[in-house]
Every structure is written in C-alpha cells, then in structure tokens.
Amino acid sequence: MSTIQTGAGGRGLASWADSGRLSAERPGEAGFSNPLGRESRLQTERELGGRGEGVFKCPEDQLPLDYAKIYPDPDLEAQVLSLTIRCIHSEEGCRWSGTIRHLQAHLGTCSYNVVPCPNRCGTKSSRRDLPAHLQHDCPQRHLKCEFCGTDFTGEAFENHQGLCPQESVYCENKCGARMMRRLLSQHMLVECPKRTQPCSYCAKDFLYDTIQNHEYQCPRYPVPCPNQCGVSSIAREDLGGHLKENCTTALALCPFKEAGCKHRCPKLAMSRHLDESTKLHLGLMGALVTRQRQELAELRREVEELAVGSDGVLIWKIADYSRKLQEAKQRANYESFSPPFYTHRYGYKLQVSAFLNGNGSGEGSFLSVYIRVLPGQYDNLLEWPFSYRVTFSLLDQSDPSLSKPQHITETFLPDPNWKNFQKPGQGRASLDESLLGFGYPKFISHEDIKKRNYVKDNAVFIKALVEIPQKIMP
Ligand SMILES: [Zn+2]
Ligand SMILES: [Zn+2]
Ligand SMILES: [Zn+2]
Ligand SMILES: [Zn+2]
Ligand SMILES: [Zn+2]
Ligand SMILES: [Zn+2]
Ligand SMILES: [Zn+2]
Fold first, then answer.
1. Are 386 and 374 within 8 A, CB to CB?
2. Span 60-84, mean pLDDT?
3. Shortest CA distance to 356 belongs to which of 346, 365, 348?
4. Where along the sequence do coiled-coil regions lie (predicted)?
C-alpha cells in the first residue's frame, strides 16, 4: 500500500475504507482510532451499510459481514497512520505533507483550513483570510472611534462614521473654518461669515460678509432726508420722490415763472410769496400778454404772406358793390384795396385798388382802377424799376353758354419813371407820391358798367394779369 490520496474530510477516509483492507478478525469497534474524527467514522459506517444492526457487507464480494467479528487491528492502524499524505487543502495551495497521524495537528494551524470567526459573528473563513475579516468585515469586530474614543462593534461603527460629533470638519459654506462636527450647525447658523442672511430691509438673500457692503446700495435702506426736514428714515429709493414731492424744505419755483418771476423758495413759503408779489406778478403777466400779442401779429403777417397768390394773376371780387358805391359817393377819394399778390414766386408784391365812384378825371361817373407796388419779401433779389406788362379786366359774368363774355380789358407797360415802380425804400411815408398807383381813372363809366353782367349778384370781378417772361421764373 502506497500513499493514499485523500480528498476533503471523510471522502478520503471512505476511499481508504473502500480499499477493503479493513480487518474483520476482531469484533467491536473499540480501539479503532479514526484520525479523521467522529463524523468521518459515522460516514464510514453508513458506507459500509451499517444500520447499528451489526450487519456489514464486504466491499470486495458484497457478502454480509458479522459486525461482531470486526475488531481493531492496532498493527494495521499504526501502519495506516504512518502513511504519508498531503494536506486536505493541497488543491487550495497548502504544501504540507506528512503522516495521517499528524494531519489533525496540522489542520489546527493550516492557514487554508476553515474556521469560525472568533467573534461568533457566524462567518467561517480560511485561517489566512481571518485577519482581514476581523479587521474589516466582521460585524462583531471591535473598533474605537479615533475622534470620540467610543468603542463600537463593526456595524455600529459604520453608522457612526461621518457622524461623530467630535470629528473635526470644515465648514460646508467653505469659509475655511474647521471645528468639531457638533459645533458646525451653530457655526453655520450664527457665526459663519459665508452664511446666507436676508437683508432686513429689502429681504433679498446675501452672504453675511457682503451684507454690510450691500447696505450702502440697498434701495430699501433707510436714510435721513439730507435737507433735515425732519424725516429721519426714508427708503433710499424713495428719497428722490420725497425731495421732489414731499420734503418741506425742497425749493419750489414760483408758478409765475413763465411770466418771468425768478423766485425760488421752500414749498411752504410759496403762498406767502404769492400774497406779497401780486403786483409784481400782474406786471409780469401784462408784459407777457403784450409779447404774445406781438407774436400773434407777427404770425398773422406770416400767414397772410403765405396766403398771397403768386402766379401773376389776381381775380378780385368786390362784393356788396351797390353799398360800397354809395359809400364812395359820400366820401371823397374812397379807395378799395385788393388783397396783395406776387407776380410770381419770389417776385414783385403788387396790389390793385379801385375807386368805385372814380377819382381824378373819372371822379363821379367812372370806375377807376390802379395797380401799385408794395414792399415785398424778395425786393432785393429783383430788377428795378418794375417793368412788366399789366392787363386789367372787368369781367363779364354772363353765362358763357348763352353768349360770349365781353370783358373790358386794358393793357399797359409800366412807365419806368413812375415813382411807385422804383424799388420800395425803407420808411416810405404814407402820403408819399411814391405810393400812388398807376392805372385808369376812366376804366369804365357808370353807364357801361350797368350793361351786360359786369355787376351780377351785387358783385364785380376785377382781374389783374402780369406777364412775366419765362426766363426769370424760378
Ligand atoms: Zn494545510
Ligand atoms: Zn466575524
Ligand atoms: Zn466618534
Ligand atoms: Zn463657515
Ligand atoms: Zn437690502
Ligand atoms: Zn425732506
Ligand atoms: Zn413769483
């Protein structure tokens, strides 16, 4: 018999028993010392078919054996126990080999042998994995918190880790402060310079260390009125409105400032100024009215100027003819004037006049018609004397579809020596002869004007036409 290769536990022994070399010379099991322990021996009995009835079968020929005839064989036992075997953990790496006799002793120290955790946590592990288990995994291992010094079993320690009130930690607000965890919440609530805090004026959130700066800008921060009006606390953003509207010391302008009063005083004192300055204000208002009247007159002139015709043709309607003729008969030299008109755009400013009861040689029985040059806007740009052909017409208002109208027409070239046709000078006196128009004292007799339809609906039309050569038109 050479070395028996054993597996784990009783299986190795079974193969040893299966080898059929059990001696059955002596009955009883006493003295059969199984080096592999009780469990292995029971298994051996089962494999041998034992039921405690003392019936065994021979593994060689399957014949029943009489249990009573089985007896220990000390010599064979000694022989067997001296066989050399490898450790049952050789496959896992144990390199031990020795006699079966010494196997049990080896297993007591074999680093591959499985042993229960000495902390009775229920875990079994190989002897060589045990230190790691005891140190890191065993829920029953004992640990001391390095911060608070408390003893913990493994599980409790894991729960304690990261929570130890004595552990030194950095402030979560990153203010740089370090303290025991148990002091942290208090720190973050009332001490940390990086804690957020609402501004007590505008209620927005700020870091504690910037809130002081914020107060210099906070729109709701209370400030006193700089005019010392008595208002001691007003939100910064409302100060402008206060100074403008409510501050009793704010300066106000006199309501007559448009009229020229330059007075400024605190609002409260204004009514006294108004009481005291009635005369002054009245004077200022009078002057203002005068200035405005002048402005109005100027405007009216400009508007009239704009309304003046500028195409060289005037058609002048004299309405209410019979009444005006009557008036002219009663008042010598009663002259009616047409609206002024321009010969062309930027041209000479002219005006037609009529003596309904005649003047000069036509006085009393003719209609006299004249034209005169008025001072115009563009006189400095024009050639003088005025020398363009003028045509007067008294229009026949007969219905053109019934008979061809027969207008009374006279045309003349201005006399270049006539004073009124010279360039109008500054400050022409009103009775200056340069104001005399040029025209026809006997344009039409009172007899002829009654003919046809020269007077219709108590109105006459006098037309003046100035012929301006095309080349001087703008
Ligand atoms: Zn071993
Ligand atoms: Zn354990
Ligand atoms: Zn602790
Ligand atoms: Zn902090
Ligand atoms: Zn604020
Ligand atoms: Zn004030
Ligand atoms: Zn005033």
1. no
2. 83
3. 365
4. none
Is the pTM higher than 0.70? Answer: no
Q: CA 116 to CA 111: how far, in whole Å? A: 13
Q: What pLDDT is attached to residue 426?
A: 59
Residue 297: predicted pLDDT = 92
165 CA → ligand 4 middle, Å: 17
Say which amino acid occupies 282. L
Residues paired with residue 444 on neighbouring β-strands, in sequence order: 367
Q: Is the peptide bond before 385 cis (omega within 30 degrees of 0)?
A: yes
Neighbours of 424 (CB within 10 A): 19
Specify the pairing of strand 97-99 against strand 438-445: unpaired
> CA–CA separation, 107 vs 119, rounded Å?
20
Provide the token pair at 398: 């007969």
Min mean pLDDT across 282-291, 325-334, 429-438 is at: 429-438
Per DSSP, the three-state class of 429 is coil
CB 142 within 8 A of CB 156: no
The CA distance from 222 to 229, in Å, is 15
Structure tokens at 407: 């207008």
CB 211 within 8 A of CB 196: no
Ligand 6: distance of its center to the CA of 240 in Å? Answer: 10
